[in-house]
Amino acid sequence: MEIMWPKESNIFGCTLLLCLALLQEGVRSLNLLSVDIPSHVHIGHTVILKCLFELGNDELYSVKWYRGKDEFYRYVPKDKPPGQVFSLEGFKVNQTASNSHQVVLANVGIAASGEFRCEVSAEAPSFHTDSISKKMIIIDPPHQGPKISGGQSQYNIGEAIRVNCSTIQSSPAATLEWFINGKKAPDTALRFYPIISHQDGLNSKVLGLEFYVYDQHFQDDGLRLQCVASFHPFYSVSSEQSITKRHPSLSVLDIKEEKDFKRVGIR
Ligand SMILES: *[C@@H]1O[C@H](CO)[C@@H](O)[C@H](O)[C@H]1NC(C)=O
Ligand SMILES: *[C@@H]1O[C@H](CO)[C@@H](O)[C@H](O)[C@H]1NC(C)=O
To answer: What is this structure's pTM?
Structure first.
């Protein structure tokens, strides 16, 4: 009973203060401005996640960081020590470098990808709580260009070119594009295949290209096929294959080329 009294008076007191806080809404209170979280991070890198807020007249109660539903870092100024880490798969929190405004994740792995959220709470009387989240993707791009396969080095006019472009394992799966003589291949020439997911979270992808060869396809240096694998927004790798005519027939284009060549020869 003796314990009950102070507790009840405390609850009553808080309620009064809360009313007071509501009446004073014009007074500046905790304001969560933004989070600074990169959209893409290279595997193995260290990343700093920042939470930008103004306290106004409020006192900070806590800053909590979540990935999805899981809390992984909590900063409570009144706790000793104020910072606390809850380990999650995919990264290690560098506790000495983390504080009320930032959390530092060391050696990020593919499993670290997800929705990151910063939640800030004010002390009594306002108890104001706000949070902002942002998606972060860990990328593990291949360091080689994609592989072009299934083609030959020479084709006859009218023959069908059927080739594949495939990425070795990457995360996330690459976006593949085909270019014919530097121009994006038409959708009708593309052949799509399902993504192959591997156990380690990496993905392989294949994009086919199929079209009939016309004379116009052959430029001075033959027919150029290029495949680009992109990992938006800052990384792409590409590979090229050159194709020549197997039986050059005398076409309008060839005559023109010969004339040009002769003229150069005379000079
Ligand atoms: C943690 O961060 C501190 C300060 O930036 C740095 O000196 C230290 O090497 C880091 N520790 C780890 C394990 O990354
Ligand atoms: C391209 O890859 C697909 C899927 O792996 C395969 O079925 C097809 O035969 C390949 N085509 C060529 C021309 O290699």
So the answer is: 0.66
